[in-house]
Amino acid sequence: MRVLLVSPSVKDRLYSLMPLAWALRTAGHETQIAGRPGFTDTITMTGFVAVPVGGEGPAGHGPGTPGGPAAAGAGRTGPYGSDGTGGYGPGGADAYDDGGTGPYAGGPGTAYGAGGGEPYTSGGGGAYGVRGGAVLDDHADVEGLLAHAALWRPDLILWDGAAPAGAEAAAKAGAVSVCAAGPFDHDAPLGAAAVLDTLPPSLRRAEHAERIPVRPVFYTGSAQLPAWLGRKVRRPRILVTGELSDAVFAGLLEAAAGVDAELVCDLGPDAQDRLPAGTRLPAHTRMLDTVPVAATLPTCAAVVHDGGAALTAAAVAYGLPQYVTGAADGGRVSAVAGRAAAAGAALPPGTPDALRALLADGGPRDGARALAAEVAAMPSPRDAVPVLERLVAAR
Fold it and tell me: Does the keyword Lipoprotein belong to this entry (predicted)?
């Protein structure tokens, strides 16, 4: 069969599709990936054929942009409406959207996005950093997908949850529509015959009528293994990564001074320069411009990060306890990070002695191991391929 994947212009979202894309290809199915023209170079680096659709830039293309879909859709109650009734706004049922009173809220009705209940607004960013212009959801995107579908005639259009243009294109082109839902996406994808769900059972908000469970396989692109990562770990290793504020990072370094652990800090090339004058790095601290995260996580004992869902899900899969600091933009973290904390596998912001708690037996470590066991029992991306084949055969 012919499969067209549709990705928003966000590298992490594209990478989350890769294990299934390769499973489809190795099963003998023709597989292409559609995205915005400015994102096609990123797509081709994965080894797949890129199909450019829609406009070039973010301006006018996404929710949160004046005149964009969020403005046009004000008052809608569907899964991509902007009134917050899709599950993450004031009317939603998510335990971590509590009117701004809980540790994972950013203010009344804005637990995950600065613009309100809609996670894809330009001020939000969501679990994968999906900001307004990166979402594939406008008329040009749909028309571009339909033009390609008319020529290539895909049997299946598998669209990322932040690329709902794929749903409309599938409906008009007569292709089977399947949504690859990210951990932060809504629970009612538009017109999907099925939903690929990578969350373990205890972290799901609801059961989809046609849910296809798929074990998450963490992929971060090509990388070269650094020499230090090829040596035996001599003390517990903690990965520190994400958009941590300078104050949070300085506090972590101070706390780490009394912990016998190795810190691997993946915070960008200027992280150390942003520290207050006189800040001393604890012993066994690595300050690195970049880290091959997928290769580093299996060597770690714990993770400190800003709450992004991709890394949260990866840490869950590896059974690593997590300390979720909250992002630098006001402490908002993803829904999945909040649920991981509720499951006992992560510590919320402000937890005293967090680093020691992460390394201790019991507590978050036990919760993380329990979640990892759930993930290990989920079907692999290869196992999902026959299910997709049956959906296409039954249309």
Answer: no
Same-domain status, 27 and 160: yes
Full-prediction pTM beyond 0.85? no
Other beta carbons within 10 angstroms of residue 80's beta carbon come to 23
C-alpha to C-alpha distance for 129 and 310, rounded to whole angstroms: 10
How many domains is the chain partitioned into structurally?
2
In a domain, 64, yes or no: no
Tens-place pLDDT, residues 217-233: 999 999 999 999 999 99
3-state SS assignment for residue 280: coil
User: Does 303 lie in the same domain as 206?
Assistant: no
In Å, how far are 246, 263, 353 from 276, measured between CA atoms? 8, 19, 22
**Range of the structural domain that residue 268 is part of:** 227-376
Residues 163 and 279 in one domain: no
Burial of 100 (0-12, 13-18, 19+ CB in 10 A): middle
